[in-house]
C-alpha cells in the first residue's frame, strides 16, 4: 500500500506541474519577441517566432525548476513588502508583473514583457528589479559572471530592455542563492549599445516572421548544440571541431614512445615515492631494509593571504593548465607495440 | 491572328541551322569551363587535405607509405574512441559480421576526421529547412533531404548525399494522433503517425550520420577491426547492438532467459524447421507459428523460434512438428 501511495503522490505532483507548465499542444506563431527571448543566434530568434512547436517536450524536472523559480520570486517579493517600511530610506513595492511593449518607429510591435517589480523610494527614484534564481545563478558574484553560462547570458538583455523602455537610468537584479540574496546594480548608460543591439536583432527576427528571409546562420556552432530548431527547421553547415593535427616530428615521436614505454614504471615510482615520503617525513637518519635514509629540513617561505585579499588578485584564465593524455593507437601495428615491456 | 497566336506560330517553326551550332559551341565551351572548374576544385581540395600535404614533401615513396600507415592509424584511432553501443552489428548469409556506425558515435569519429557538412537541403525561400515530402498513400509519407560533405583529414568528398525517413518507421520520435496531439498511451485501434518535426529531425540526424559513415568508411566495418581497436579495454563486440542476421529483438530478449539445455534443443528444432521450410524464411515463420499455437488456450502461436525459452514449449513444438503435414523424418533417420 505504501508503494502505491508514493506512486500516486509522484503522479499527482507531475500532473500538477503539467497543468501549470505543460506544453501547449498547438503553440501559435508570434510576430513579436518576448523580453526573455533574446538569443545569441538571431536566426533562432526568428525561428522561435515562426516555429514555436520545435521547442516542445519539456520534462518534469525542467517544469519543476520553472515552478521553483516562480515560487522563489514570489517569496522574495513578499519579503520586500515586509522590508520596505523598515529600510532607510523606506520604499514601496510597486508595478509588480507590469506588462510593457516596445514599438518600433514604424509602429511594428518589437518586444513584449512583464517586469518583476519596481521599488519606489521617492517620486523620482523607483528602480526596476528583476528577480533571478536557480542553480545557474548560485555562482554569480558580478555582472560579468552572467556571461559565463548560456542559461544566464541574456538576463542582462532582459533588464536592459526594461530600463530602455521605461527610460530608467538604472535598475538591479535580485539574485537568489544560498544565504543572503545578491543585489547587482545595472546602469543603462554602460550597456546602451547592447540594449540597442537587442532591438535591432528583434527587428530582424520580426521581419522574418512577417515573411522576410531568416537572418543568417550563427557563426558559433556552440549555439546550435542546445537549439530546439537544429535539424528541424534549421540546417546550418555542420563541423565537428578542428580535427586532429598530424604532427610529423621524429624526435617528439621517439619521446612519446619512451614516455609510453616507461609510463608504468613511472607510476610505480611515483606511488612508492609519495607513500615513503609521507610515512617517513621528519626522519633525519634511519635504516630501512637495505636502504639508508637521510632527511633534512629545508627553509621555505609560506604566504598566508586572507581569502579576501587572495581573491582580489585571482582571475579566471581559460588557458591556465593544459592536460594531456597519450594513448597508443590500437590496430595491427599498435597491438604489437602494446606488447612491449616497460624499460627499467 | 492575335499576338499570342503569332508567337506560337513563330516558336513552332524549326530553328535555323547555324543557330543550333552556335548553341552547341557555347554548350561545349561551358562544359569545358565547368569541367576545368571542377578539376581545379578537386585539386584544391586534395591540396588542402592533411594527407596530401604530406605526400608533396620530399621522399615521396616513403611518405606515400607513411600516408597509408597514417590513414590506418586514424581509422583505428577513430574506432577506439567509440563505444559498443555506437555500432550495429549485422550478419550476412555466410555468417560474416560487419558493424555500422550509429548516430551516437558519428560525432566521435567526425571530430577526428574533421568532417564538414554543408549545403543541407532543401530549404524554402525564407531559408527554413524543409525535407521533401513524398506520399506513400494511406496517410504515410517519406521525408528526404540532401547534403554535401568533406573530410579535411583524408580529403574525401561526397555530394548529393541523400537521407530518407518514413512516417511509419519505429523509433523516430514522438507520435501524434489525428488531431496533432502527442500520444501519451497507444490505443490498439487508433492510427498514429510520426510528429513531423521529430521526423524532420530524424532525417537531419541520419544525413549527418550517413555523411560521416561514407567519408570515414564506417558503413561496413569488419567486427575484427572493432576487436582490434578495443583490445585491452572493456569494450566488446558482443555488447554492440544486434541488427540484421541476428533474429528479432523479441527473440534475442527471450534467449537471454533461456537455459543452456533449452538453447541446445532449440538449435536442433530450428534446423529441422529450416529443413522443412527448405530455407524459405516466410515458411519458417509460418511453420513456427503453427507448431507453437495452442488453440485450447486461444494462443495463435509465435513466428520467431527464438522465443521458445521453456522446456515445455520446446517439447510441445517438437510434438506438433512431428504431426505437421509437411513433416517427414530426415533421410538418415528413415534408413536407421
Can you walk me through this structure?
The complex is a heterodimer of chains A (344) and B (336). Chain A has 10 helices and 11 strands. By secondary structure, chain A is an alpha+beta fold. In chain A, strands 2-5-6-7-8 form a 5-stranded mixed β-sheet. In chain A, helix 4 crosses helix 5 (192-209). Chain A is extended, with a radius of gyration of 30 Å. Chain B is α+β, with helices and mostly antiparallel strands. Chain B is built from 12 helices and 10 strands. Chain B has a 4-stranded mixed β-sheet with strand order 9-2-1-10. In chain B, helix 4 packs across helix 7. The chains are: A alpha+beta (344), B alpha+beta (336). At the A-B interface, helix 2, strand 9 and helix 10 of A face helix 3, helix 4, helix 5, strand 3 and helix 6 of B. Strand 9 (238-239) of chain A pairs antiparallel with strand 3 (115-121) of chain B, so a sheet runs across the interface.
Would you tell me the overall average pLDDT of chain B? 79
Quote the beta fraction of chain B. Answer: 15-25%
What percent of the residues of chain B sit in helical stretches (DSSP H or I)? Answer: 40-55%
β-strand amount of chain A: 5-15%
Secondary-structure-derived class of chain B: alpha+beta
SSE order of chain A = HEHHEEEEEHEEHHEHHEEHH
Q: Give the topology string of chain B: H per helix, E per strand.
A: HHHHEEHEEEEEEHEHEHHHHH
Biggest sheet record of chain B: 4 strands, mixed
How far is the first residue's CA from the last residue's CA of chain A? 66 Å
The number of helical segments of chain B is 12
Side by side, the strands of the main sheet of chain B go 9-2-1-10
Largest interface: A-B, 42 and 51 residues
Beta-strand segment tally of chain B: 10
Shape estimate of chain A = extended
User: Any low-confidence stretches of chain A, pLDDT <50, length ≥5?
Assistant: 334-344
- How confident overall, as mean pLDDT of chain A? 88
Structural class of chain A: alpha+beta
